[in-house]
Specification:
208 residues, 1 helix, mainly beta, elongated
């Protein structure tokens, strides 16, 4: 009996239904501005170390990540002779409600345009445990440099646009559908409680 009693909690947990989760996609556009330093690190190679900052806009204008602020510390290697570039960095995204999402990205291409992958690695608050991934496209519209004698390199300022055409995401737990601005494509393990049979349905229920 003692062995059965000690094993009972594990048995009950294995029989419990899975936590609900919001699963969906979002299309996001984000104008950004970058600042940092460029260093000559080889005869034909430049390195940029700095940050990208901007605002995310979800296509349908709704959700916790719509008008979210982001900052992405990153490093870029620019190959002068073959006009190629590799970029790697991390992003901290702050939603208007104060919840945070963390991510990592890699992007390859040419100066002014690169493509890569963007991966969500976690979050806080309503976005705790979030995971996801999307292709990422980054375009540079305007850039400039100025000499920084004390820093030993150059200060670079650039502006452009980042696009996530199809960000697939999953948020575990009891969450509100569409909170990233898309409406969930499905809810894993979530069920809606039946309406009470002893109370008349609200007239507007059929319109929802």
């Amino acid at each position: 009996m003692r062995r059965l009693a000690s094993a009972l909690p594990a048995i009950l947990l294995s029989l419990a239904p899975p936590l609900s989760a919001e699963v969906g996609t979002a299309k996001i556009l984000a104008p950004w501005e970058a600042n940092g330093h460029i260093y000559q690190v080889a005869v034909d190679k430049l390195q940029f170390i700095g940050t990208f900052e901007g605002i995310m806009y979800i296509e349908n204008g709704d959700g916790l990540l719509d008008t979210a602020l982001f900052i992405c510390p990153s490093t870029q290697i620019m190959h002068i002779l073959n006009n190629e570039m590799q970029s790697h960095g991390y992003c901290t995204i702050e939603s208007p409600t104060g919840d945070y999402v963390y991510s990592e990205f890699n992007c390859n291409g040419q100066p002014g345009s690169c493509k890569g992958t963007f991966t969500l690695t976690g979050g806080t608050g309503k976005l705790a445990g979030i995971t996801g991934e999307s292709a990422m496209i980054v375009r540079t519209a305007l850039s400039g440099t100025s000499t920084d004698e004390s820093g030993g390199g150059t200060v670079s300022a650039a502006k452009g646009l980042a696009m996530w055409p199809e960000l697939h995401f999953e948020v575990p737990g009891n969450v509100k559908f569409g909170m990233l601005g898309t409406g969930a494509t499905q809810s894993d393990g979530a069920t809606n409680p039946p309406a009470p049979t002893d109370a008349p349905a609200h007239p507007s229920e059929s319109l929802r």
